[in-house]
Amino acid sequence: MPNVVIVGGGPAGIRAASILVEAGLKPVLVNETRQVGGQGYRAPAKSLAVDINALMGSEAGKYQRLHSLFASLQERIDYRSGTLVWGVHEKVLHTLCDGTAGTIPYDALILATGATDRIMPLPGWTLPGVFTLGGAQVILKDQGCLIGNRIVFLGSSPLLFLAALQYHKSGASIAAVVDTTPLSAKRAAMRDLAASPRTLARGIVYRASLHMAGVPIIDGATPRGIDGEGHVEGVRITDGRGRERLIPCDAVAYGYGLKPETQLAELAGARFRFDPIFRLWLPETDADGRAGADLYLAGDGAAIGGADAAEASGALAAHALLTDMGRAQPEAELARLRREVERLRQFQRGLARAFAWPVAQSATLSDETVACRCEAVTVGEIRSAVHAPLGPREVNRVKAITRCGMGRCQGRFCGPALQEIVAGACVVPIAEVGRLRMQAPVKPIPLHAAAEMEP
Amino acid sequence: MTTRMRVAVVGGGLIGTWTAHFLARRGLDVILIEKGMVGAQSSGVNFGNLRLQGRHPGQYPLSLRSQALWEDIEALIGDRCEFERTGHLYVAMNDAEREKLEQHARVAESHGLVIERIGCDELRRRWPWLGEGPQAATYSARDATSNPRLVSVAVARAAQRRGAEIVEHTRVTEVCRNGTGFTLETDTGRAVDCDAVVNSAGAWALNIAEAFGETAPMFAAGPPQFVTEPIPYRVTPSVQAVDGSVIFRQILRGNVIFAGYPRTAADPVLNRAPVPPIKTLNGMRNLMKIAPFLKSAQVIRVWSGIEGYLPDMLPVIGESGTTPGLYHAFGFCGHGFQVGPGVAAVLVDLIVDGRTDTPIDLFSINRFKNSVQVSDKLAREFDLPAAAGGRAG
């Protein structure tokens, strides 16, 4: 039996596993965290009194179905919990589990590695008390903690309203929800958003619920900075009518939607193309998720599509893998899944317009703003490096000269902003400045991890 | 468009940029042509050691001349490039290695380098973080480190200020004889007429040599390097196990950079030198043995580059054996960073004065007309498939 490995225990990974199990395979499912469900459907720690159904709201049914599906699979797959995959080389995954390095060889690989927050630097964004939107959600769901008592939700993202509502339900005071995209841009995106009326309606409900609860919602604002002495004290914005405002708060949840976690796909040999709507380099796949020989991508790690698209694309990737093994797959079902994934990804393209990545903001950032929080590299250092004689115009060289992207996160967080800042400084289209290349380890690994291994 | 220049330098690594700088300083018209970006290949990604201990005996005059230039870097180019006189601790794990250290020390001392011999107790007293393995060491205070990411670009800028023309993103497609001089054609349509050509094209240098009827058995490989997150500063010297299993240093901002043999295969055509995870794990294990206090430090990043290697582990330096006016400097076998400015100074001697006082006969390309003795270092520093690997395109 071929050794099929799935990386990622979210909706895409679990659905892929279920299809493979139905086909009589016993896949390995590697999950970085201890709780399955991915970031969206992550189960709270058992000891916590988190009312997950209340938090999940209209998605509670899907949450329960996914976790039941996983429970039914657990005995029929080789499940590796709490296992980080930090490298891929010559059809072997390199892992870290309980502080020890290990390997998992594979014949075919499905990567369902999910997404992470997409961040644009802002003066004060590295102050204690500032969290990414996704991070704020994880803290609430995983640990039952609030990031503060009086919180500003800032940026532009469908998560903005969802996370604010989850915090509101959990007892936090929401100082304001500040969306940097004007309502006019949201209206313009309606044609794509109509591809998923149910999801669109859900978003409108989140927003309406916050409004009904008396939470101030500010559209089309420009963030000026996050203020505070040693900790967040307030958010400065220019609102849609051009007024300067300071919103006092003790925590900020900040973000601009999600970006696929593509590091392992790159190490496994996927090719990348520039996507002008998301303004990101995304892995190339066919409609079913094939990204290379014996390599399949699914879920938000391939292209942002949300949880429903993740499940459908996970199923598609598993069917593609089985097809490539020479096993005939139900064509009608494949066609249905392809339509479903395409529809939901079209909806996400609409969302990318309705909750816009703030391209203009990168050009107005002050030189003192920190761009790379791991290495404390400022926007000004990047611009000076580019403008110096023989200055680099490609992001990997900018990284070599400035250290931007060289730290713990390896550019996972500063990478998209670095591309914008370099393109802006060089006055060239963003696709021309390239993207940061990846080498293993994709996340930090301690030296002692290698201790037990024989050379 | 054809430009008339006294000298054309092909390849903007450390050697090429220093050569352009020194030539410009001597008042010569010089153009440097780089296929990509200055300092982006092995000159920019190496370990950054300016090591004097343990060099090939025939290389000491060149190395010491080079070190004096490094020590003067700020005055020469107006930028320190993180040059630090860190010292170099050469560590032995057993008696056989201790004897090897002694041999190295005698050679270094015969060239005037000051070497301290350090026994087991003193080793623990001066560097208490050392693990149980090291039994003896030699220490050279004059050895230093610098930041390779910064140097070549800084030297190129200094050369520009002296009037050298630096051209990036331009590939030399042909070098031909033109009377007693040369004409270089490039992929951007620009041509250069010149009296002398410096071939400092690194792992890609054979194309020029072979156009003039000579060659060298060069192959491309990469030195895998690893770095930890910043931790409190503690390791002052650059430390190297004499068996080559590990070499490490801590920079002032706290990161520990480490490397170790064997080197990895590199692809000069695709311009890629991936680091297989198993090399990272081996490096981690070897570092932990010698510096156990680092066991909880996190490795955050790895990288490699593309270097040219020759089977006797010595570079090619000097005038062409077939063509007067053509000067080679390539194949530095992973130890070109320290000698870089010295090699450039020698090339300038040869171009401007027609002779040099620094002995370089050992490095002539003519040695490859006969069969060359394969260095025992070759087997030690390489996985054998890597040594058989990529020929530069």
Please sum up the structure shown.
Chain A is an alpha/beta fold and 455 residues long. Chain A has 15 helices and 24 strands.
The CATH class name of the largest domain in chain B reads Alpha Beta
Into how many domains do the coordinates of chain B divide? Answer: 2
**Straight-line N-to-C gap of chain B:** 26 Å
Indicate the CATH topology of the largest domain in chain A.
Answer: FAD/NAD(P)-binding domain
Radius of gyration of chain B: 21 Å
**Most extensive interface, residues per chain?**
A-B, 32 and 36 residues
Going across the biggest sheet of chain B, name each strand in turn: 6-7-5-16-17-18-15-20
Overall tally of domains of chain A = 3
Oligomer: heterodimer
Give the termini separation of chain A: 29 Å
CATH topology of the largest domain in chain B: FAD/NAD(P)-binding domain
- What would you say the CATH architecture of the largest domain in chain B is? 3-Layer(bba) Sandwich
CATH architecture label of the largest domain in chain A: 3-Layer(bba) Sandwich
Proportion of residues in helical segments of chain A: 25-40%
